[in-house]
Amino acid sequence: MPENTASEDLENLRAILIGPFEEHLRMRDEKILEVVSQMQTTVFERVAKLEEIVAKLPESLDQDRHRTVIEIGDAMAQLGQQLRTFGVEPDAETPSTTAPDDEFENRQVDETAALIAQVAG
User: Which of 27, 50, 56, 96 is 20 to 30 Å apart from 7, CA to CA?
Assistant: First the structure.
């Protein structure tokens, strides 16, 4: 029996001396797990938001590209109108080397319109 009593006394002493330290370690571990869990949740929420943004990027870029092509087409049309308005008609007697050939000009306009339609479509 004295051996059991000594063993119980030793266990009680151990509980008294080390018990608070073990409790402190257990609480610290719980707090660490809680903080890690909160950080993980925050990171997952941010990743989800980033995934949404990345998923919307191609659509946004397509819209920007379409808008840009339309703006370029409009600018080219306005420039063409201004050039025709301010352009000097060549004399019938003196052929002009700078006057564009009507067929060439029409072909260029058709090709430009087709290119704009292709990019915008």
Answer: 27
